[in-house]
Amino acid sequence: MKASVREGFSGDSAGGSSVASAVGDAGAIRAKRATGRMRVVGKRRLRLSSRSSSQSCAKRHADLVILALAVFVVAAATVSLMLGRYPISLDQAAGMVASKFVDIPQSWTKQQEAMFFNVRMPRILLALMVGCCLAAAGAAFQGIFQNPLVSPDILGASQGAAFGAAVAILLGVSSFLVSASAFVFSIVAVALVLLVSSRAHGNRILVVVLAGVMVSSLFSAGVSFAKLVADPQDQLPSITYWLMGSLAGTKLDITLAIVAIPMALGLVILFVLRWKINVLTMGDEEAQTMGVDASRIRLLVILGATLVTASSVAVSGMIGWVGLVVPHWCRMIVGADYRKLMPASMLMGAGFLLVVDNVSRLAFTAEIPIGILTAFIGAPFFCYLITRKKRGRD
Amino acid sequence: MSISIKHVSFSYGKREVLHDVSAEIDDGMLVSVLGPNGVGKSTLFRCILGLATDYTGTIEVNGKDVRKLSVAERAREIAYIPQTHSSVYDYEVVDVVLMSTGAELGPLRTPGEAELARAEEALRRVGIERLSHRTYTQISGGEQQLVLIARALAQDARTIIMDEPTSALDYGNTARVLMCIQQLARQGYSIVQSTHQPDQAFLYADKTLVLDGGRVFAFGEPKDVVTSQTVSAIYGVDVDMQSLYGDKVRVCVPVQAINQI
Fold it and tell me: CA B48 to CA B251: how far, in whole Å?
């Protein structure tokens, strides 16, 4: 109640400022002051009526937050492009991008250009993509499993990918094939979970989650076995390093381009179905009686979330916490409605992972794998979120 | 004919829950379903709602076989109001009501202005528009039940099924919710609700269906059906039934309780 009153105030003050600016306009035409005032009054009445009939204060607040997040992501990406051991100024960065399209005088060195396009830009892009994907998948799973403690790896996508990567590293194949193998095994793990759960009896949601736990532990046993038989000189460290999760060494190459396809596809699915996820949080039978085919929608959401999780894990390794923390955080800011929560989570995830990756590459001389940092930052932050007073509680 | 149930039998494995149940429910009628725990009231509702489909016999809602309708088509004919429950997430009340308005929307769409108007109209009809921007998990149980009723109204289905709508409510909320339901029936909705209170099954009903052991024990006018014999028989408790206000109200009391006074 308190919060809605507060939002009411902020909404009013926003209305007040627009009225003030309208008054300013009217003031410019002093001769027509009276008509100006009438226009202002008319405007205010219009605002009031449109407010009562359409969106609530909370919804407009959510829209503003989403807009602010979008601005933040763009700003953070721009700043990140300039940060690093080889500083690049804003005009240099702009010039380098522009020089790809038009001919302009070069104000930067060859090294700077190579650094900018081959190292920094792809890495920032990937941080944004992976963060967006993991947060979207986490939000979607938390909705369809009606459980706020669920994260994107609930159906074994991460352990499957880890196993695929470990096997590929054992076979000594190229990094592209390691990613491909991780992606394929990630999908296989989730498919296995769905197969097992479709054969099992009982509560659908419980059965799917249980099958996820089983398949995860199966694949993690596989990873342990792969580590056991790996060559301790080179294979074991690279498996271990892969498992930590890292965005270092991203190149603007075919892997990045290929992985963008399933990511985009999955994100579109999750975005389009965001309102149906609302209905699914009420439970299958209720959703069914409201005209939403619960099992089909859940399957589609699982498909979308698995595509984005598998692609993220395949290129970045295991990055935990983003998919759990970010949707929670967003829910506290924009509310539970997935029409707002899904886009907010996507943007917040992208921004969050970018910031954490910046810390990982800039804060220490030797880079810390981002998977470790997300846990270092994510776990305490999560504790803060759940212990803090909830928005709107009386 | 709003709901037509013909020779419906249903089994969980070998245990038969419903046996040859038949009943015809007219348009605009408020029907109370009375019966002890586990006699198949919920199962019958699940069959009517199309949630359980492997029964024998047929169920038609507004002249359409529920098993032959798609999920979305079924939602247009019949709405369901569950017992008060909390939601995992803190939705605004209007968002909860909005959830039922999407049956006709294509798979790619989310509710827009028209659906929002329907949700707000439903809240107004139940008399709780003041709650529309409150958080669903923070309002009282009675208010939550009214929100779920508004949600069913926003669905625009003519037939509504309610599973013990007042079982978790206090006395005042029970009265408010039941009066609201009665008004809706007067406005032309066909409503079937289950209850454990014989008094309610008499007062708030045009017809009363009594189930016992998966069979129809009695079905008809409340004054014929809600009697001390019926209630004593199905609940296994000796009761005395008193008629008040010219038989507009019947009060049911266990005989043992009277004798101890």
Answer: 30
